[in-house]
Write a structure and sequence with these properties.
Layout: H1 2-11, H2 14-18, E1 21-29, E2 32-35, H3 37-45, E3 61-71, E4 75-86, E5 92-105, E6 108-117, E7 141-146, H4 150-161, E8 166-167, E9 171-176, E10 179-184, E11 202-206, H5 210-220, E12 226-230, E13 233-239, E14 245-251, E15 263-265, H6 274-287, H7 291-296, E16 298-306, E17 310-313, H8 314-326, E18 331-332, E19 335-336, E20 338-350, E21 353-364, E22 372-383, E23 386-397
Length: 406
């Protein structure tokens, strides 16, 4: 059934594909979520299959691997990676991490949940040759234009890009998926100046370690590099082989006793099923860094997937993954220095299990650029009078803007 799903999707056989989807399916792909059969199929029809050479429905090749299947009488889950090779005139490589939930209805298996993220890599899936551009586990960056008058620049770009997401006295940042287009009237380096009629922009690439980048640059080029603070981060300023300015940035998470307890703005609990309160309890434990309570909610062989970090299996790995992920956030004595808003709680009962989805917006207080939208998918199983988590998938969701440049 999994192979059939991807075969029909690749061929554009929407009628055959529709037979595999449940009426109440929740489907997440390309950082967009669809609720219900009609919306999911509409989204599928509009998804790109890459270039289409004459006589072919697509230029893509798919490789399914590292698959884990759990199957019972009327319920099944699958977690696997999907290697992608595409391109007719030029090649590229990509990789998706996919979690699917199935239910047998009237002796026919249907997909009731599909979560697909392109943020993670998997060493068990064959990598392409070095000559093939690789989009697996993509990095993020800002593209910055130096400007002479910040307000005048905002007035020019806002009708095209929408209002800036972040504004200071010297800069304005417009979110573009996970990156930013930024205007800056006080550039970080004296070599960055506005020259009329020339391309004056430069990139700021986000990295995990400036020391690693510095070592690699020194091996490649004999260039003048320097580091300096840049907001809540540390930046390394260098020149590439053509003399262009390029900047690498490592965020430095902060801890302050002054940071207030994180808040959660959730839906009204009145009339919600018991699994709703368990879901909010888990979300609260996550944002307050209460790992002991969160770990206790899990079944012994639970799986935790965070597409900003990776995949963890079993309580010990999940605890390590949570602690590592939390190290990347600004913190206080009561948890992450952020406010969290939830919406669109959905649940589906399958015997003694509940498939749950919940949309979340995590607003970072001190560093708004690190805020993100996410779709939380969970499978809870009833054990006696309690519910235990078997699967969790936190997948970051795209920011949607209704602007000429979308």
């Amino acid at each position: 059934m999994i192979e059939a799903y991807h075969r029909h999707w690749l061929d554009g056989s929407n009628e055959e594909l529709s037979k595999l989807l449940d009426d109440q399916i929740v489907r997440f792909r390309s950082e967009n979520v669809s609720y219900g059969f009609t919306n999911a199929l509409k989204r599928i029809k509009n998804e790109s299959r890459g270039e289409r050479p004459p006589g072919y429905a697509s230029s893509m090749q798919l490789e399914i691997g590292d698959m884990q299947i759990h199957s019972e009488k009327n319920f099944s889950t699958a977690l696997y990676s999907l290697g992608i090779r595409g391109g007719a005139r030029w090649e590229y490589s990509d990789l998706a991490t996919i979690f699917q939930v199935f239910q047998k209805i009237d002796d026919t298996w249907k997909i009731i949940g599909h979560i697909e993220s392109f943020r993670l890599d998997n060493s068990k899936i064959n990598k392409p040759p070095d000559s093939v551009p690789n989009r697996r586990a993509p990095f993020t960056f800002d593209f910055v234009y130096p400007v002479k008058d910040i307000q005048r620049a905002i007035d020019f770009y806002s009708p095209l890009l929408g209002p800036p997401d972040i504004v200071t006295t010297t800069s304005a940042s417009f979110r573009v998926r996970d990156s930013y287009f930024e205007l800056d009237s006080e550039p970080i380096d004296e070599r960055i100046v506005v020259i009329n009629g020339r391309a004056n922009g430069y990139g700021i690439i986000n990295v995990n370690s400036l020391s690693d980048i510095k070592d690699k640059i020194k091996d490649l080029l004999d260039v003048n590099i320097k580091t300096k603070p840049c907001g809540d981060a540390e930046c390394l300023i260098a020149e590439d082989s053509s003399g262009n300015i390029v900047i690498f940035r490592e965020y430095k998470p902060t801890y302050s006793l002054q940071n207030k307890k994180p808040t959660i703005q959730s839906l009204n609990e009145f009339g919600q099923p018991p699994v709703f309160s368990k879901t909010i309890e888990a979300v609260n434990a996550w944002i307050t860094n209460d790992y002991s309570s969160l770990i206790d909610m899990h079944a012994n062989k639970a799986v935790w997937i965070d597409d900003a970090f990776g995949v963890a299996q079993g309580k010990q790995q999940i605890e390590q993954a949570l602690k590592s992920r939390w190290e990347s956030f600004d913190m206080g004595p009561n948890g992450i220095n952020a406010d969290l808003v939830t919406k669109n709680f959905q649940t589906r009962n399958i015997g003694d299990r509940h498939l749950v989805t919940l949309e979340m917006f995590i607003k970072m207080r001190t560093n708004p650029k690190r805020s993100f939208n996410a779709v939380l998918t969970q499978v809870w199983k009833r054990e006696g009078l309690d519910l235990k988590l078997e699967h969790t998938f936190i997948a970051q969701k795209r920011y949607i803007k209704d602007t000429p440049v979308g």
